[in-house]
Amino acid sequence: MLTFILRRVLSGVILILVITIIAYTLLYLGSGNIARTILGQNASEELVAQKAAELGLDRPLIIQFLDWAGSAITGDLGRSWFNGQLVSVQLASRLSVTLSIVIGAIVITAIVSTILGILAARRGGAVDGTVQFISIVGFAIPGFLIALFLVLIFAINLHWFKATGYIPITTSFTGWLSSVTLPIIALSIGGIATISQQVRGSVLDGLSRDYVRTLRSRGLSSNRVVYKHVLRNAGGPALALLAVSFVGMIGGAVIVEQIFALPGIGSLTVTATAAGDIPVVMGLVIVYAVIAVVVNLLIDLAQAALNPKVRLS
Amino acid sequence: MIRWKKAAAAAAIAVTTALAVTACAGGGTDGGGGDSATGGTLTLGGFLAPTTFDPAGSEWGNRSPFYQSVYDTLLLGTPDGEIEPWLASEWSYNEDNTVLTLTLRDDVTFTDGSKLTADVVVANLQRFKDGTAPSAGNFAQVTSFEAPDESTVVITMEAPNPAMLSYLSREPGLIASGEALDNPDDLATTPVGSGPYVLDTAATVTGTTYVYTKNADYWNPDVQHYDGITINILSDPTAALNAIKAGEANGVKLANNDALTEVEGAGWTVSAVELDFQGILLLDRAGSMDPALGDVKVRQAINYAFDRAGLLTALQADHGTVTTQVFPTSSDAYDPELDSYYDYDPEKAKELLAEAGYPDGLEISMPTVSVLSPASYALVAQQLADVGITVKATDVPIGNFIADLLAPKYPASLMSLEQNPDWQLINFMIAPNAIFNPFKYQDPQVDEYIQQIQFGDEATQASVVRELNTYIVEQAWFAPFYRIEGSFATDANTNVVLSTTNAYPAIYEFTPKQ
Questions:
Q1: Nearest alpha carbon to residue A229 among A245, A213, A243
Q2: pLDDT at B163
Q3: Interface of B with A in 450-489 (CB under 8 A)
Q4: Measured between alpha carbons, how far is B341 from B23 in angstroms, rounded to an integer?
Q5: What are the tens digits of pLDDT across the range B433-454?
Q6: A66 CA: distance to closest CA in chain B (Å)
Q7: What count of other Cβ atoms lies within 10 Å of the Cβ of residue A105?
């Protein structure tokens, strides 16, 4: 188990290295005159040149990258070129916002997909048809459209939830709920659509197996059979999909954060990339890469826990 | 068993609904949208966050409310653009307008208890001059800041600067506590000023929400209309519109005029002021890159080629006023006749081109950028093509656009620019070293006008700047289309008076409706 984890961590580190090199190069090539963007159109050319020299923008790409990488390894991600704040501080405060909606969305997705999938597989008939319909609708409609729809109905018309802004859970639990419920629902719909179908298929497949018949013939209740035995076998593919969904949700969070004006890393990514705030964007790249690696590692561990056959590979 | 599952599902739904209902109760009181009756919280929406709270790095425009809430400026700029006393109770120039003497109020204390003295003011002004704020160059020609006594500040300049008083009513005039200046790193996140409100750093989330509470010891309680101010950054126009419709703010700056009917439909009031103009900057007036533009007849022909009223309707839904001058209506230079000096006359345009030696038309190279709508470029190209001028368009990435324009890489470009007060406008677009005069074009008549304005008294300035305006319109230095309305929305509980010289209204101008 330990070598398993170590190997995954090592490949994760190499992945992060490659990603940072590619990202830095793309930023360098694509950001235009960053000093001018920082100072705006009213500043004189001399001031712009002074700013560019101050930020080290006139040095070759390799030197700039090595300079950044050298500090990053020691944990110093530098300061934002646009507001002078420490990148690590900004990322930490915003990460909690994004994680609260993404983790919330994953939990809701997992629970609802399982319930819907099992319902569809066991009941069949009209229930199955309804769940399939819900899936298709959730799959076809883009997340941001659902988000706008939810805001219109539940925030603007009914005033049940907030339309914009984020209230930290430490300030007020009900306030936090009112600000994250709609974003979480918006993020979950797509995942529920796919994963519920996956669960349905796996459970149906499991229920037709011989061992299920054997267990039932030994007197186990059908609930026990489903929840203790079939689900465990069906869990593997569903977990893999969940991992993919998680990463997809981090991306989906970008749009949801814009629409709901949530101060998360998604909205930071948009503004920092558009502006060319390289220290912040590189910090974000590392965060995203680490999240992807960690999530995949956790899912792999969960798979190994569920299915002993996986542990051997 | 199945009944248990149904019961569990029903329980889950009940719990979620209960939480939602309590969240509704929580959500209603959070956000402070409704209560702005006398003394409540004013909730504002803006789309640009401040980059630092250090006055030496500050900017005005859409960032002004963040600084104005917590700092005072030396002088006050009224909504009409007049200058009135603020931290400085009186001021006077010497004979040749090179020495400005200001007298400070003696009853001002900062929120850390320290007093406002001339030394503190001088320290602030010097820091701004030496700093990297985009407007640091405003003090470029200042030779010294002095404090001969506790309440007198003396600013000595190389040459008269007609805009100096205006600068002191904006970010160069922001005064932070003298003791706070010793810790610039703290000052960047924790401002210490003398202003009407104090930043609540615990409740503030940088880049998203800024919370201010009333300064109980403020020297001018008459302008403190609220117990607190919250400014939320709503950079996405959809999020801003949703905040308006859900009543989660009292005043929101609108990025464009696309959703005005929806805003008014939600019961809000839209106020507008014309701050920017849009049109073509004919930068290469000497013809060094494009010889054709060096001929005034060609530039005039371009001015005759545009159906300005049609463009205003198509591109701004009539939210603006057609014009052919770049000076704003609040300026002494403004002449209503010059709003329509060039009418829409393609035939005349072709005539002028033929007279200039281009009977078969010509080609102009212009950049395009994603900030301005593709429709604008298409219409411009079409109207120019109708008089025989072909536009050779080059798409420029947004990060390079201004830099390329100022390099200069193009002889002309479509652009939206702010219509500043006179001296600022001259130094921004007209003077030989103006930022938006990248070809450094110089004209002896214009030079003379600029001299007279710089060294003249107020009456001379007023009349000469009008002559200057007329001259550059006749000489077709630019081809403006229209002034654009910049809109600000307020809810049913809030009144605001917009500024004619700034994108965001002054904090002092928001009042609750009685």
A1: A213
A2: 93
A3: none
A4: 60
A5: 898 999 999 999 999 999 999 9
A6: 24
A7: 27
